[in-house]
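Dataset card, provenance and construction

Sequences and ligand SMILES were collected as paired inputs. For each pair, a complete structure of the chain with the small molecule in place was predicted and serialized as structure tokens. The example below shows a pair involving zinc ion. Curators did not alter the output after generation; any descriptive sentences attached to a record were derived from the structure itself.
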Amino acid sequence: MIHKHRTKSEELCMLESLHARMDLTENDRKHYINLKKGYEGELKFDSMTEKLQCDCLLLNDLRLKMNNTHFQMDSLMITLEGICMFEVKNFEGDFFYERDKLFMRNKTEINYPLIQLRRNESLLRQLLQDLGWNNIPIDSKVVFINPEFTLYQAPLNLPFIYPTQIPKYFRKLNTTPSKLTKKHLILADKLVSCHLEKFPFLQLPEYEYTQLQKGITCESCRSFSVAVEGMKVVCGECGHKEGVDEAVLRSVKEFKLLFPGQKITTNKIQEWCKIIDSKKTIKRILSKNFTPEGVRQWTYYQ
Ligand SMILES: [Zn+2]
């Protein structure tokens, strides 16, 4: 059972928006693609764990802090036997293992997921002790989710689950008898209460309002080729349709995420959305969904 759902990280949402609205440098673009790919892999893993029949509690994407050190876990599962911690990797292609390191075929070294896994396990153990939960067994695994991932020369004893082994791993979990008690639920709630919505150290490019392309982007394909047709916003690229209100609200959310200090006014949002000609429409949507502050032309929304 899913006890905590995954949400797209603030960093990925911001990069997605910036990627559509400005030219990213090669490094920022790579970072964005990596995050996006990682997130897609995590969603794929979620689609598998949510089908599990055994009695377990799933906590997806936990961001925690222990002794001033932030750490993030892709997926955590509470079972009768203890905690299973998963680090999900969506690597694609041929990789090889050499002297405790992982390389791509062209010999580029990549961050070795086992180091992260061990570090997270140790921090989680300390946090659990801090919360008064001692001696809970923790079993951590790196899950390679991409079916087109191959790793050469890896020793057999690594805590890795390869794409071809995932079905068997879940089958085993499903057939292990498990009946959770209230104690497990308390532990799950405790961990969720420690989850940090805001996470520091975002790796973002510098940007200013003036340099960003204005307009509503398509909800589906992110293209700017959208036009208002009646009460809908219709994409000229992929044909996706979205209600005008929903599209404007989505754009306001984007604006607030990129410019948290700025006030939401009718003029600003009309300029930001660009394709909504009627000021009245913007005003109606804002007053329906936010609380107006100030008077007349100085009105802003919170
Ligand atoms: Zn589209």
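Derived descriptions for this record:
The mean pLDDT is 94.
The first helix runs from residue 10 to 21.
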